[in-house]
Design a protein that fits this description.
The structure holds two protein chains of two kinds. By secondary structure, chain A is mostly helical. Helices cover 74% and strands 1% of the residues of chain A. Chain B is built from 13 helices and two strands. The chains are: A mainly alpha, B mainly alpha. The interface between A and B is large, with 46 and 44 residues.
């Protein structure tokens, strides 16, 4: 009970934030009622997914300060578990999702134990390495369809199928992922005020001091890593039933890992709203850049050139993200 | 036996190539402690420089090396002065993501300029030539030349680092930036020069590799990861370490060859059924992980 009360309690953020958050939530709720293109709908779903990925990353990367660039492997584990269980044994989404999360968390414990002996960018590169190993394995593993991946055709079931989460219209997916999103925000609100959340922030500030305060640094990091993993793997499961066609390249590639970290960093790592703001800016930007520029003949890659430039500018001049700018102006006004 | 020896020789030769690729990163990442994900993209640009210069001027690809070195040096200095300098002021994550952005930028610029097709050299003194050194082992002339040049470059860089005032200043900057500044060393210029030398050496490697490796805008990432592994295995900041680590990583890439050797020699059925060649690069990532966890100092490292 205490935990639920804590999760719903936003009283420590300014009233302006709460009002804006409620307005945005109301907007999300009514968005499908307004006329919109299918592309806008797909972008919105992508936004929710990446906001959730970003929130998961934010636990370990933002609050804990451990730059993890291997989150894509857990997207893959979640997505593949759901897909394999669905296509082979017809196990519905609501059962396969926890199974996938459990598998991902188990794997995160196995590699997390040695991983967290490393620090700084040695840690970051090691997470990339683990993710690429898993991707290479999935690319030759025949059971999961090797590099061609797995697919499920919606005609086999009778959509809308709420148990397997197979729908024909995107609007169902929209509301499902919106529920996940709200749950994610509430969880993050609880997490940042939890014991572990405070331990993590002290680890980020100074590991030696944290250890001298009696915090088991290694174990706290592993636990948080598992939480981040569960987040990512659950959304990965959703990805599988939403896209209906998964392959190692688009679930486990390095680009996905980087995008997840970028989301949180652009918005402001280590803040509640950061990953959401980051996803809200970056996902529409990325998909509309591709839509407008990527398809034009002779200009292949220009969308990614611009995207790369944006990443470069942000990380060079505003590494604390958009939320950092907001907080800076606030502080200036108060003084 | 032939397979074993052949794998051994080609592994060692490839190892010297990989050592040369990693040499630039040894300076940038190993010594100066700056992550550079765009390292493989520098290599890709070096490959294009070698290829296009030789095609445009009709010179033999081997004589394009100075051009590649110049392009790489300028690129390195430009990247540092115009971009990486600002990254260093921010948190560590800014370096990781910023250089990743640089990588995307360079890769897709190359895609726009040169197209996505594979391109390779058709002519040249060394292209396509090879000789038999007995018992069926064939060594290609290009790889041998690259190996010789790799050794020469390593000796040159080692001398530069250990026998000159410049090298000492660079080492001092790497060890303690603040302290070096108090001693009157222009640390900003040292960092920029480290990037210049790093960029120059990797573009030279690229211009050499293009003699036997087709180039497209996507070759970079694999080489980046290989270079990170080589630097980690050799030990951060150790130039000789990077050379021996390159040899070890070269042998690691030949694991499929050794695997076949055991499968055939001892006639083990299950071994020959495993598609080992698909795992060629996976072992490199596994190696990085294991090295970092078991011995973070690497083989010859002096920096923790």
């Amino acid at each position: 009970m205490e935990a639920i009360k804590n999760a719903l309690d936003f009283s420590d953020s300014p009233r302006l934030d709460r009002t804006v958050a409620l307005l945005v939530l109301a907007l999300f709720l009514v968005f499908p009622l307004f006329p919109h293109s299918a592309f806008a709908m797909a972008t919105m779903i992508q936004f929710f997914m990446f906001a959730l990925y970003g929130m998961g990353w934010n636990t370990i990367g933002g609050y804990g300060g451990q730059v993890d660039l291997g989150k894509a492997q857990y997207v893959g584990i979640g997505a593949y578990t759901t897909m394999v269980l669905l296509t082979r044994w017809d196990i519905p989404f609501w059962l396969s999702m926890p199974v996938g999360a459990a598998l991902a968390v188990t794997w995160s414990f196995i590699i997390g134990y040695p991983l967290f002996k490393l620090k700084g960018h040695y840690f970051a590169i090691a997470t990339i390495a683990t993710s690429l190993v898993l991707k290479d394995l999935f690319e030759v593993w025949k059971f999961v369809g090797a590099s061609r991946g797995l697919g499920v055709s919606p005609t086999k079931y009778s959509p809308p199928d709420f148990v397997r989460l197979i729908f024909r219209e995107d609007v169902y997916y929209y509301y499902v992922i919106l529920c996940f999103f709200v749950a994610g925000v509430l969880y993050m609100n609880w997490f940042r005020k939890s014991r572990l959340g405070f331990q993590l922030r002290s680890i980020k500030d100074n590991e030696d001091v944290a250890r001298s305060l009696g915090i088991n640094v290694h174990w706290a990091k592993i636990k948080t890593y598992a939480i981040a993993t569960a987040f990512v793997s659950i959304v990965g499961s959703f990805h599988a039933v939403y896209i209906k066609n998964i392959e190692p390249e688009d679930t486990m590639s390095l680009d996905i890992s980087i995008l997840i970290a970028l989301m949180a960093m652009l918005g402001g790592a280590g803040s509640l709203w950061g990953p959401i703001i980051g996803a809200g800016v970056l996902i529409p930007l990325k998909s509309y850049l591709k839509e407008w520029l990527g398809a034009k003949a002779g200009l292949v890659g220009i969308d990614l050139v611009l995207y790369g430039l944006i990443i470069m500018i942000i990380s060079a001049f505003e590494p604390r993200g958009l939320w950092g700018i907001v907080e800076k102006t606030r502080r200036r006004k108060r003084i | 036996m032939d397979i074993l020896l052949g794998s051994l020789v080609s592994g060692l030769l490839l190892g010297m190539v990989l050592a040369l690729v990693a040499l630039g990163l040894t300076i940038i990442f190993g010594m100066m402690d700056i992550v550079n994900f765009a390292h493989g993209e520098f290599l890709m640009l070096g490959m294009y420089t070698g290829l296009l210069t030789s095609q445009a001027t009709g010179l033999d690809p081997l004589f394009t090396l100075p051009v590649a070195a110049l392009v790489g040096f300028l690129l390195g200095v430009l990247c540092y002065a115009g971009f990486v300098k600002y990254l260093l002021r921010g948190p560590m994550i800014a370096q990781l993501l910023g250089t990743f952005g640089l990588m995307l930028f360079l890769r897709n610029m190359a895609l726009m300029l040169f197209g996505a097709n594979d391109r390779s050299l058709q002519t040249g003194i060394l292209v396509g030539k090879s000789f038999d050194i007995g018992s069926g082992i064939i060594v290609s002339a290009t790889k041998l030349a690259v190996a010789v040049l790799a050794v020469l470059s390593f000796v040159a860089i080692w001398l530069l680092m250990n026998r000159t005032r410049f090298g000492k200043a660079l080492t001092a900057t790497a060890l303690n930036r603040q302290g070096a500044r108090y001693m009157g060393i222009p640390t900003e210029r040292m960092n920029a020069l480290a990037w210049g030398i790093g960029g120059g050496s990797v573009t030279v490697a690229g211009a050499l590799i293009v003699n036997f490796w087709a180039v497209n805008p996507y070759v970079g990432l694999t080489f980046t990861m290989i270079a990170f592994t080589v630097v980690a295995l050799g030990g951060f900041g150790s130039v000789p370490g990077a050379f021996f680590a390159g040899l070890v990583v070269g042998l690691i890439t030949e694991i499929p060859g050794f695997w076949d050797f055991f499968a055939i020699t001892f006639d083990i059925d299950w071994m020959s059924e495993v598609p080992m060649t698909s795992f060629k690069y996976m072992w490199i990532y596994v190696a990085y992980f294991v090295i970092m966890v078991v011995r973070p100092r690497g083989l010859f490292g002096w920096k923790q």
